[in-house]
Inverse folding.
């Protein structure tokens, strides 16, 4: 199971506004299950050179409405598979945001940082601190909802759900065993 | 009691917190949890990781093989196999595959699982289609649905609401598709972010349930969290045909707080076409008329309805499809397919030169059954025209209603339906 995420330091990969999940992972690959296979097609239509440049621990920067469109969680799986460990955006589409948080990939909303960070910049993201740093600059991201913090501090929604189930009384804990 | 929007009322009726309002976090127990062959297999793996032994509420779970169904290849077949096995293991009665099902969002209504005030959580972004039925549908990813399968509930931020007041009477070839394309054109593709679109006003009565589905389906393309139509006599009568117990429509309280109010006069609308690569790039069909197309595609989770098929057949009756074009028609469910057969619609289309597909999400999401090659152009009744959506990254998709799609099939170019010469003048 994943662990809580705090500091992420890596190079910036910069994208524009309204990057949709079809662009992150085209529909024809949705039946693939292996993360590495999904990663092999990550952003291939939008930026064919991306997979060559990206390294483990890198930071993806996007503009407005990042991750719009399909609910495909495969988009987040693909980004994680190629090494992306934090996302900084001007705004994120609701479902993409939840998917990323649920899989332990932090998304910080910060229009100023998203505008300032340039491709190749070495940057640092602090999830618990809620800030982004680069070249002596520091930007404060919009605060995360309490439930989002709880999920990230567990390392993802599944770990969070395990925690909820184990804290519940046996009666409503492992649900009904009639399955 | 503080006045509430339709959205706040429906969420409150399902929330552990009781009465909730825009901006607050609600823990919601939905009436339906829906997954498909693309989102389901990932969710089932995560569900197992939660440690839960069984489903919190197996009778609320609906599993639909529709994306790569009928199985496109071995990988697709494996996803459907996983869905089937999960249904069997967890005794999920609501499992559907080709021949007995259809595209999930259209199917869900047919099954009588959406009534006034219902909440559907689906692992598919177009779950918002349920808004047509004075219900709330919300899209999520696989992991959210996995958690909901395990504990029967999920957290959400209660959205603000945007009131969309529909007035006037639509012209001959103006449909629900044109209403939503016009709305997205006005607000932009993230203009409704963080909000629920609430459709009301006298114009609602001008839209059939099928047309309301076409509107609701694309709420997410305007960035909306969800959407909901006011209920009325038409939706009440529809619930009855689905065998649902009578339940009063959920209406907003006077004085409820709305973030914004938008009026759309249906009488002022033209059939709209959204140019690639954005669903927000709609223009009246006349301005794009003449654009050559290689493929015409009628189908998806809200525009493969009987209404759409009747419109296509009305255009194609006594006409033939241009030799430069291939046309693919995808009835959304098995029931719609059979009704279209009984009404003679499929024969009219086939005689004109259209290929009739079994129900499937198919090429709408670029999966299979009508993929575009490099340089090709389609006009389609689908909901997204992103770059590469239906195939090669250098192909393009124009979004339109079924009238416009069918008229374009006849000429091989984007064509306003009223511009076609009368079929009676054509050689049979």
């Amino acid at each position: 199971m994943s662990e809580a995420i705090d500091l992420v330091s890596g190079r910036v990969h910069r994208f524009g506004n309204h990057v949709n999940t079809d662009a992150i992972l085209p529909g024809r690959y949705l039946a693939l299950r292996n993360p590495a296979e999904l990663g092999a097609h990550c952003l291939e239509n939008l930026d064919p050179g991306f997979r060559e440049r990206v390294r483990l621990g890198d930071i993806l920067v996007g503009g407005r409405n990042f991750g719009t469109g399909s609910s495909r969680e495969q988009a987040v799986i693909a980004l994680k598979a190629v090494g992306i460990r934090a996302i900084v955006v001007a705004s994120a589409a609701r479902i993409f945001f939840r998917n990323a948080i649920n899989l332990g990939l932090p998304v910080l909303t910060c229009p100023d940082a998203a505008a300032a960070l340039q491709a190749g910049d070495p940057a640092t993201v602090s999830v618990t601190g809620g800030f982004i740093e680069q070249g002596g600059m520091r930007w404060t991201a919009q605060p995360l909802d309490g439930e989002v913090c709880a999920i990230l501090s567990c390392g993802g929604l599944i770990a969070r759900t395990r925690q909820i189930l184990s804290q519940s009384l046996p009666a409503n804990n492992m649900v009904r065993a009639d399955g | 009691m503080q006045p509430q929007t339709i959205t706040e009322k429906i969420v409150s009726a399902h929330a552990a917190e009781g009465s909730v309002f825009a901006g607050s976090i609600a823990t919601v127990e939905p009436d339906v949890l829906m997954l498909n062959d693309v989102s389901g297999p990932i969710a089932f793996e995560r569900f197992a990781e939660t440690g839960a032994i069984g489903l919190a509420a197996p009778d609320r779970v609906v599993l639909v093989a529709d994306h790569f169904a009928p199985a496109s290849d071995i990988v697709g077949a494996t996803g459907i196999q996983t869905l089937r096995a999960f249904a069997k293991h967890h005794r999920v009665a609501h499992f559907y595959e080709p021949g007995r099902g259809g595209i999930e969002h259209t199917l869900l209504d047919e099954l009588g699982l959406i009534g006034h005030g219902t909440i559907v959580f689906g692992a598919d972004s177009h779950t918002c289609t349920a808004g047509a039925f004075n219900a709330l549908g919300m899209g999520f990813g696989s992991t959210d649905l996995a958690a909901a399968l395990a504990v029967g509930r999920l957290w959400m931020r209660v959205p603000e609401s945007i009131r969309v007041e529909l007035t006037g009477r639509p012209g001959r070839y103006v449909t629900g598709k044109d209403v939503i394309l016009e709305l997205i054109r006005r607000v932009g593709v993230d203009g409704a972010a963080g909000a629920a679109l609430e459709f009301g006003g006298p114009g609602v009565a001008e839209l059939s349930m099928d047309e309301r589905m076409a509107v609701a389906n694309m709420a997410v393309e305007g960035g909306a969290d969800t959407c909901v139509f006011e209920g009325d006599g038409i939706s009440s009568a529809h619930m009855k045909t689905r065998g649902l117990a009578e339940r009063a429509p959920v209406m907003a309280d006077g004085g409820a707080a709305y973030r914004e109010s938008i009026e759309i006069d249906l009488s002022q609308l033209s059939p709209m076409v959204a140019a690639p690569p954005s669903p927000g790039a709609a223009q009246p069909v006349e301005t794009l008329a003449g654009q050559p197309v290689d493929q015409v595609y009628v189908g998806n989770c809200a525009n493969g309805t009987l209404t759409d098929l009747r419109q296509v057949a009305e255009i194609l009756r006594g006409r033939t499809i241009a030799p430069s074009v291939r046309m693919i028609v995808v009835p959304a469910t098995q029931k719609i397919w059979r009704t279209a057969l009984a009404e003679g619609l499929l024969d009219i289309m086939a005689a004109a030169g259209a290929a009739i597909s079994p129900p499937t999400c198919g090429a709408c999401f670029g999966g299979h059954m009508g993929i575009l090659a490099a340089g090709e152009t389609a006009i389609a009744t689908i909901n997204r025209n992103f770059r590469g959506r239906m195939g090669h990254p250098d192909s393009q998709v124009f979004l339109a209603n079924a009238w416009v799609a069918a008229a374009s099939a006849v000429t091989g170019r984007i064509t306003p339906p009223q511009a076609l010469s009368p079929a009676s003048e054509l050689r049979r």
User: Anything to note?
Assistant: The two ends of chain B are 66 Å apart (CA to CA).
